[in-house]
Amino acid sequence: MNRILYGLLTIALIVSSTLSCSDKSITDPSAIALNDSTTDASLVASAAISLSRDTINVGDTTQATATLRDWRNRQLFQRITWGSSDSSIATISSSGLVTGVAPGTVTISATRGSRSASTTLTVVALSTTSVPVASVSVALAASSLAIGQTTQATATTRDAGNNVLTGRTVVWTSSNASIATVSASGVVTAVAAGVAQIMASSEGQTGQAALTVTAAPPVPVASVTVSPSSSSILTGATVQLAAVTKDANGNVLTGRAISWSSANGAVATVSSTGRVTGVGAGTTAVTATSEGVSGTASITVSAAPPPPPPPTGEPRPGTGSTIVFQDDFESYDGTCLSMDLSGPWSTSSGTCDSNPNGVISSPNGTGYAGDVNGVGGRSARWIWPISTTEQFYPLEAAIGGQTGATEYYTYWYKAPNFIYRAAYPRVGKKMFILFVGDGSVGRVTINPSAFSIQPSNAAKVDSEFDHWPAGITNEDAFLTWLTDGRWHRYTIMRKPETRDGAGDGALMMWVDGYLVIDRQNFGTYAARTSSILLAGTFNGGSSVVQTEYYDQVVVWR
Prior knowledge:
disordered N terminus; 6% helix; mainly beta
């Protein structure tokens, strides 16, 4: 009996001991640690897993949690084995901390014995829009430009960790738009010389880069053309040359420095402004050079003809003569040429100005100026510019002649480089004698080698000279003689008719004392002289700049 009771007691103790141990492993987590490998995994009936976040950015983390339960659905606390289906997308530590590595989808698993659970984790690229811009830097493809050139500006946005942020809105501005402008896409255009800051702004942050703008280099001279390309002058005479500079495309370049030189100074010299002076007989080249490029003109100089023989006589004012008008151009009041006896000249085409050289200017640049190279001092000078049209810029002086009175007109004239042989009408008129009254209105026009009378009530009379000075046989020779650079004296006599059509008038003219016009019993009309005009017009324009001078104008009766 006792033996039987002892056996029952032993069994009960064993059972009791087993049940106590089993109860404690289920209900008391502290009894078996999670890393206790001796714990029987067969007690696990189910496993579950969860993530604190199932979507994370690259570089972010999330905590994985596993729950184990026995057959009675009681929670077990046992060691878990963690796993990631693709560690290139996400990794997991022994404590279940998951770290995103690269964008993608991965399975995170928890295993204990034969029981496991899994869940899906999505890893996405870092969301740049959620990270604020901390700095902006600007780079220029070229930090120095010439005016008119362009360059590309680039802006880089970064976060506080100096990571590049993309897709951010950038606004471009220039600190000085008068020096450089910048477009919305960052294209920078140089406008004027100077330094400007090219700035980029994004989310309240600004960066900038300095741009230096330099003046564009001048277009180089590719050709120099000298006009006229050839000229013939007498010793002592001058001719004005002009040089035109052009680029490689044939565009005229202005403001370029030009130097002049003569290949033979014994034949001709040239000034810094291109005026050539004949020195001795021969031919030489005159060169204009600009920026290493040259153009030339051929200059032929001929010996000046000998002066004409002594004058054969001409009328001069003397005892009993009345000086009606006189000007030697010596008197000048600083605002306009003035007369010695009868008041100032007038001009309908030009205006008097305050030029200290006595220039009377005109609309197209033609002008009259007091010049110191006169017969006895100062003289009046005309400068005719290059032109293809007729030019009319006279000086006029009122005479107030007497009806029926014979009057004389004398003046000195010099034309060192005047060209008369242009297309018809080809000549410059040297003097007009205007008459009015007694039924007649008209003029006598004295040309270099011809004359005309043109009243309003009769046909115009044109005629060449009746005679030539000694040694001169034709008009061309006379014009060459007239433009030899020396002063020549013209004297004109007009005797009006007693009445229009009476045929008892006379017109005579002397050049350097030689009688060249001799018209007696001639229709000069009865009107009195009202005024005279000097250098009335230059017909047909001029291919070069030309100069002529007047001095010692006298009218008497």
